[in-house]
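Case 142 in the screening queue. Each case pairs one protein sequence with one candidate compound; here the compound is zinc ion. For every case the pipeline is the same: read the inputs, emit a complex structure as tokens, and attach any notable structural observations.

Predict complex for case 142.
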Amino acid sequence: MTHIFSPKSIDRLKGVHPDMVLVVEYALKRSSTDFSVNEGLRSLERQTELFKGGFSKTMASKHLKQSDGYGHAVDLYPYPVDMARVNKGDWRECIRFGMIAGAMFSAAKELGIPIRWGMDWDGDGQTLDHTFFDAPHFELVK
Ligand SMILES: [Zn+2]
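Case 142 output:
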């Protein structure tokens, strides 16, 4: 099945590193579940706000502009998504984040662009060894 991004998603990829844009676009084409880009490049103001609210663990977020002038992270959500179900841990909806991750890792592998997922920061294939997890989050390993 082929999905295409909405103008909103395309807009949210502005300022994101071209390597990550490639992976995201490639993944969307092959993903069995549709998804959207909810956030890419983030302003310092917004990062400060998220950090203070406990939604981000670091002020060194890959969403911020990196030394190469690009943001290196994106937050991807199933589309459409039922957040009430996600917040209740309903598998039928939560699993779709894993489906997105599958598409992202397969795209990244084929393109030879290493990425990291917010459910498995150290990339060991385990998710229970992390106390902070962020299912929508993907970033470049650079
Ligand atoms: Zn993120």
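Case 142 observations:
- The chain has five helices and four strands.
- The first strand starts at residue 35 and ends at 39.
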